[in-house]
Amino acid sequence: MAAGLVLCAGVSAAQSSPDRQPVDTNADVLVLDHDFSAGVTEVVRVFLESRQVYRAELSTPDVSLRVRTLGGRGKQPRVYALLNTDTPSGASIVEVYPDADGDYEIRPIAASGSGISTRLRLYRDVRASHRRESVLDNPGWEIGVEVAGGWHSGFAQQNGPLPAATADPHGGSDVEACFSARNAPGIPRLNMCVLGVGYQSQTGAPSILWVYTEPRLRILGRARRGQSNWEAGALLRLGGGSIERGANVPFLLAPGLYVARHIRRNRSGAGWSFQASWSHATYKGFATAFNNANPTHPHSDRLALGLGWYQ
């Protein structure tokens, strides 16, 4: 019994010994250490992991890396030079961002494009890799551009009482483009056209150039990160316009509904988007129509089809 207690005490003391150092999980990992010779077209192969960041330290200034998949097939890693040629250490540092696991061919190249004598030390940058994984797992807005075209039912643009012939305005068409965002972190039900420009024409009335914004709230459907989805919801367009050959500055308020199909190719949300929408617009700023004593604001309905690209 006494011997057992002594043994346990010895093991406990060894485990708590100050000479035993904890493992540093933030230490960079050396993946490759190789000396390249000048005048020799030399290529080394190394396995790189996706979602990681690799730091290449080259002993010679003004040197970069050429990193290629075997056979040149597939998406090539991104390579960024970090230091200039006049650094005090006289070295070159390059970061490599692979997007797929696999074997890669690595060769140092000088500014002239030829091979060079240098020592390459390739590390997996642990802290930078953790940051990259965090960004990939928690991306921000999906950003894109949308274009659309549609038809509207027409509305009265004239001031004061309207003649009988113009009491029923003709419809027209419009085209538009906007900078858009969707799938916001924390509020994934919110999509929006952040800033758009549209050109609206109407038979028998001046054309209008609109600048608008359009928040959209998803009501039906579920948007999963990196997955395609259908959705439907409500929208609200607010905008200001400039009338062709006119001094009035009209405004519009247009609630409506939309349905969309979002196609995503990866977790960052890159892909196409197809939308159809209806809205009912109320216009102000035309100094009223039909009756100056009892002013009313013109209305119109609008149908539109749109196409978007997100990256």
Write the layout of secondary structure elements.
Layout: H1 2-15, E1 29-36, E2 44-48, E3 54-58, E4 63-69, E5 78-81, E6 92-97, E7 102-110, E8 118-124, H2 126-137, E9 142-152, E10 172-182, E11 190-202, E12 205-220, E13 229-243, E14 251-262, E15 271-284, E16 299-310
Antiparallel strand pairs: 1-8, 2-7, 3-6, 3-8, 4-7, 5-6, 9-10, 9-16, 10-11, 11-12, 12-13, 13-14, 14-15, 15-16
Short description:
The chain is mainly beta. The protein has helices at about 1-15, 125-135; strands spanning about 30-35, 45-50, 55-60, 65-70, 80, 90-95, 100-110, 120-125, 140-150, 170-180, 190-200, 205-220, 230-245, 250-260, 270-285, 300-310.
Q: Which band does the percent of strand residues land in?
A: over 45%
**Global mean pLDDT:** 81
Number of helices: 2
Estimate percent helicity. Answer: under 10%
Number of strands: 16
CATH architecture classification name of the largest domain: Beta Barrel
Computed structural class? mainly beta
CATH structural fold name of the largest domain: Porin
Order of strands side by side in the largest beta sheet? 9-10-11-12-13-14-15-16
Which segments are poorly predicted (pLDDT under 50) over 5 or more consecutive residues? Answer: 5-18, 20-24, 160-167, 288-294
Give an overview of the whole structure.
With 311 residues, the chain is mainly beta. It folds into 2 domains: 27-136, Jelly Rolls (Sandwich), CATH 2.60.120; 139-310, Porin, CATH 2.40.160.20. It is built from 2 helices and 16 strands. The chain has helices at 2-15, 126-137, and strands at 29-36, 44-48, 54-58, 63-69, 78-81, 92-97, 102-110, 118-124, 142-152, 172-182, 190-202, 205-220, 229-243, 251-262, 271-284, 299-310. The strands form 3 sheets. An 8-stranded antiparallel barrel has the order 9-10-11-12-13-14-15-16. A 5-stranded antiparallel sheet has the order 1-8-3-6-5. A hairpin with a 7-residue loop joins strand 10 and strand 11. The longest helix has 14 residues, at 2-15. It is elongated, with a radius of gyration of 32 Å. The termini are far apart.
